[in-house]
Specification:
This protein folds into two domains: 77 residues, no CATH class; 145 residues, no CATH class. It is 85% helix and 0% strand. The protein has eleven helices and no strands. The longest helix has 67 residues.
Length: 286
């Protein structure tokens, strides 16, 4: 037992003795008819009693409350940990479903992202670790890259079809050797480009590369089937896609702008190609 504990016991013993003595003296004074003196001694007794017993009661009660509080906090922490883990598992499952569900086309990605934003909010409120949240989001973000990759490649292929059709129509109108040559060159060069860019497993390539690098690899190069003006349009289109995805990657999901762009064009890549290359196509169609 330490010195503070010994001193405390001595003080409590002294207070007990003084309290007992004042109680006896108070009774004696009361029987002697000296009421003010008896009252003063009684007050002294009460003070001693408070000094002796209140710290004990207070200590016990506080200890009891402390134990109960600690137990409650431990239980609450356990429940919170379990809720956090359950939320993480549920969030991961939802993110995976949303990621692969994008392949099915419905509902719009804007609606899917709204659900995921609510999940993100819950994870933050449950104080999930940032690295755990990032790990949960990663497969979905990778699928966004794949979504934009397919949007880009389908649009370029749609333009290839529009371009070839425009060249055929021009040749049919003119029916001259000068109009036949561009059509033949397009047909020949598009085959070479398709062989170069054909990819049976784009997911693997994207997981080991970047979206920008893969879009650049897919884009027609100088000397292939696009002229300088067309390649400039392709470059601008690629920059838009790369920027939208970079913003998504930073957020960990579709931004409002990216979702709106994707939902508008995903099922309408031919119309997008027509819009992007409208001036060039108009020249072919003259």
């Amino acid at each position: 037992m330490g010195e503070p504990d010994k001193l405390k016991e001595i003080l409590l013993f002294v207070a007990f003795v003084v309290g007992a003595s004042t109680l006896l003296l108070s009774a004696f004074q009361f029987w002697s008819g000296k009421l003010p003196s008896a009252a003063g001694l009684l007050v002294c007794f009460v003070i001693c009693g408070v000094f002796v017993f209140l710290p004990q009661i207070k200590s016990f009660k506080l200890w009891q409350v402390e134990v109960e509080l600690n137990q409650t906090l431990d239980e609450a922490k356990l429940v919170t940990d379990r809720l956090r883990r359950l939320a993480a598992i549920s969030a991961k499952s939802t993110y995976m479903q949303m990621a692969w569900g994008n392949r099915m086309g419905t509902p719009p990605v804007a609606e899917k992202q709204a659900i995921l934003d609510e999940i993100d909010k819950q994870l933050v409120e449950l104080r999930a670790k940032p690295e755990e949240i990032e790990s949960i989001k990663k497969p979905f973000v990778q699928m966004i890259a794949l979504d934009f990759y397919f949007l880009y490649t389908r649009t370029i292929r749609s333009y290839a079809e529009l371009r070839f059709t425009a060249l055929i129509e021009r040749r049919a109108r003119n029916n001259s050797p000068a109009s036949i040559e561009p059509e033949l060159q397009h047909s020949s060069k598009i085959s070479e480009w398709t062989a170069r860019t054909n990819e049976v497993d784009p997911i693997s390539r994207l997981s080991n590369s970047t979206l920008e690098a893969e879009l650049t690899r897919f884009s027609p190069r100088e000397g292939e089937w696009l002229n300088a003006d067309e390649r400039e349009i392709v470059d601008d289109f690629r920059k838009v896609i790369v920027r939208l995805y970079a913003e998504c990657e930073k957020k960990g999901g579709f931004t409002a702008a990216a979702a709106a762009y994707y939902d508008k064009n995903n099922e309408h890549t031919k119309a997008l190609a027509e819009s992007l290359f409208s001036n060039v196509l108009a020249g072919f169609r003259k």
